[in-house]
Every structure is written in C-alpha cells, then in structure tokens.
Amino acid sequence: MKPIRPVILSGGAGTRLWPVSRAHHPKQFMPLTSERSMLQETALRVRDPKQFLPPIVACNEEHRFTVASELQEAGITPEIAVLEPVGRNTAPAIAAVAALCATQAQDEMMLVLPADHHIARPDLFLDVIAQGAKLAEAGKLVTFGIVPDAPETGYGYVKAGAQMAAGGFEVDRFIEKPDRATAERYLDTGGYFWNGGIFLFRADVIIDELQNYAPDIWQSAMAAVSDGRRDLDFLRLSRDAFELCPSLSIDYAVMEQTRKAAVVPADVGWSDVGSWTALWDIADKDSNGNAVTGDVILHDTANTLVRADQHLVALLGVDNLVVVETGDAVLVAHRDKVQDVKAIVERLRTEGRAEQEVHARVYRPWGFYEGLAVGDRHQVKHLMVKPGAAISLQMHHHRAEHWVVVAGTARVTVGDTTQLVAENESVYIPIGVRHRLENPGMMPISIIEVQSGSYLGEDDIVRFDDAYGRMEAAE
Q1: Distances from the Cα of 395 to the Cαs of 364, 402, 409, in angstroms?
Q2: How buried is residue 119: exposed, middle or buried, by Cβ count under 10 Å (0-12/13-18/19+)?
Q3: Please, are residues 246 and 216 in contact by the beta-carbon 8 Å criterion?
Q4: Residue pLDDT, tens place only, 1-11
Q5: Which of 38, 56, 48, 167 is nearest to 110 (CA)?
Q6: Average confidence (pLDDT) over 125-135
Q7: In the prediction, which pLDDT does 471 show?
Q8: Which pLDDT score is estimated for 472?
Q9: Mean of pLDDT values over 195-222
Q10: How do strand 141-146 and strand 118-119 relate by DSSP bridges?
Q11: By CB atoms within 10 Å of each CB, which of 102, 114, 460, 462 scores lowest?
Q12: Rg from Cα positions in the chain
C-alpha cells in the first residue's frame, strides 16, 4: 500500500467549548481528552512512517506558530503548514492542499482529519484506514462512517448502499441532521452511519471531482497555492485568490454529488467533542457520574462535569451541570443546554468583550504572557519564554518596563547593552529604548513584567527585528 499523506484541518473555532476554547486559542490546542492537545493526539495517531507521510496542516494564519509549537512538542515535523488568510470551510482548504499534493505526486493519497476529534480505539482506527486505502487507490472518495450508538440528532448521516467486493459500501446518499424519531429509525434499521468528516482519496481524483462539481472553488484554490509564498515552514495562500472561494464544506461541494463516494464503517470510539456534554460522555467518571478536572470539591453532586483551571471550585447539592472555570471566566450550564453556549459567545462578540477571543494567558511563538494586575497607569504580567526563544527587538512610545527574573537566566538587551539577568535580579527599560528578552538556556524562564506609563495597549510596539517574521504589533 502506498504511504498516505495525513491532511489535518485545524481551522475550527470550537465556540461550544467556551470558555476553554476561544477564537485565538481554540479547542484543538487544548488538552481536553488527555494530557496532550487534541491537535497533538490527531497527529500522533498517524505518525507511523510505514503507513504515513509527514502531515500537512491547514490552519488559520493567526494560529501558525501555535500549530508549529504543538507539533514540535509532540516530536512531529510536518511537511508544511498551509495558512488560510480567511476561513472558507473545508472544501477550499482541501482543494488547496490537493493542489499542493499533486505537485509532489498526482496520485498522492490524502487522509483528511479534523484536528479536534477524539478516537478512543486508535489501533482499530488504523485498521479501518488501511481498509479504506484499498478503495481510495482504486479511485473512490472514501468517507468513514461512524457506527452510531445512539439516535443522535446533532450529526449528519450517511446511508450505505450496495456492498463492494473490495470492502466497504457504495454511498446511497448523505442525509442532513434528522429529528429524533428519524434518528431512532436509522438506528433500528441499520445501514446508517454518522458523517464524521474523515475522508481518504487520491489527490488527482478529488481534483477531478472538484473540477466537475465545484470548479470555482478549484480554480480559486489552485490560484491561491500558485500565487502563495513560502514563509519559514509555512505556505501563505494568496488572500486575493482564496477570498474568491465560496465557503462550502467538502460534503456539499463534492461528496453529496459525486458518483465515486464509498463508505467504510468505523466503530472506533469516535467523538467530535463538539460540546461539554460530549466531553462528559467520553470522560472518566466517579461513582456518582461526575467528571472532574482540577482543584474541585464535590458534595451531594451527581452527573456533572467540572473543570477548574486556576481556582478551587466547590459544588453542593447539584445535578446534571457543567461548570468550567478558566481564571477570567466561569460557565455554569445545565447539561441539556450546552449546545446554546454559542449564544453566550455571540453576545460577548456583540458587546466587544475580549473573553470570546483571547484567554487571560495569551500565547506567542516565543511562549506566553498573562495579566496579573491592572491599575491606573500600570499593569503587571507574567511572561514565559521557551528555551532558545526570544521576543522581538522592540520599543514602546508610551510605557516603561521593569523585568524581574523569577526562574532561569535571561539574556536582556537594553539599548546598546546586552547582559545576563539571573533569578531574583531585575532590569529597567525606559520609554523609547530598544530592548529584547531572550532565553539562552535549556529550560523555560519566567519573568514578572511591571509596565508603567500613559498607555499600556499591546499595539504600542515598534518592532525592528523578529525571528518569527512578525512586524505587526498585534502579533
């Protein structure tokens, strides 16, 4: 069997998992089902070099360094990360990656994987992929139908048709999300599968079908690749070309129209982790049905999911709740209402509140910073700089800074002077002076930054040099 190219789609926002998942750091970058992030789990699932090529990741431009850092931490070197300048759903992203793959080999096998799905039985998953590869090599567009275990109304379905000699089934049709009675009938009848959004096909075959059924998407995506530019380990798609792509899923654009669709049943313990209830479903629970993460005290509590990131959370005399604490926000919801969390996110967006976009901890390619205190003309932050990383050479027009090293040893440039600053030592950066913070060591360093001045916004940054190619203040 030919090696398969994993194509990991990492463009989702995961709004139903707010407040953990936010626009600038969505759920695929969070450790929700294990100690690793969901992106890391997805990439590690398909890392066997005998079966898989290095992955290609398609992601939002704003997430590029997070993707790179996550994969590096997992010991995975991707072929490349394809940067989408705007969100256009799955069909344009897959079309762009197919165009890229076809430059390597016209018939390269592409396994399309959402970055934020959970697979409880990864060994069986690999067996199912191997089965689907036989069909894909023969020119089929393979979707993996999740064997349903409940009359779920939140998923689309795939109805299996005739069984094929090579395994799997022809696709009779794709079905929109059904009502409860219809879903129950599907479960009783058999031959219906959840559409899990996992696909396997040859690059040349999906390109042919895009040309047949979605030529506008194909032409714009192909132009976005050919007019794109390499930037470090990334391919920046042309914004002008990619913006012309209609925003369509690969299901609507191709799979529901093609005559080449096949479905392979996959009973692999799949979950899209699309809500807090979905996470409760797959989590380990105590004898009262509670799934708990963090510093939590429960008394007379049952069937509840509790996640405490930074503070103690105590629950007394409640049932069927979701309680999530992240330091700057707390969500309390009935488990039957968690699908409506997106309404809270939309209200935050309408009111212009930052809690729907960013965490108190803001991730950067060099590490992260998090706010500790804010007052009149001052604020205090905690900075973590990764080994070998450095912030840009920069200056501020409106604020001065004090840096206190609380763990590790930093290399600090202030003006024309560069010095090592050890633990419990500090340095002062006056307004208007160029400066840089570096970590020359093998362990992360922690800095307490005290800012003072007339304006303390993140856009008061003038960059003169940056190892990550960022010259915009917002990055």
Answers
A1: 18, 13, 22
A2: buried
A3: yes
A4: 789 999 999 98
A5: 56
A6: 96
A7: 56
A8: 52
A9: 97
A10: unpaired
A11: 462
A12: 24
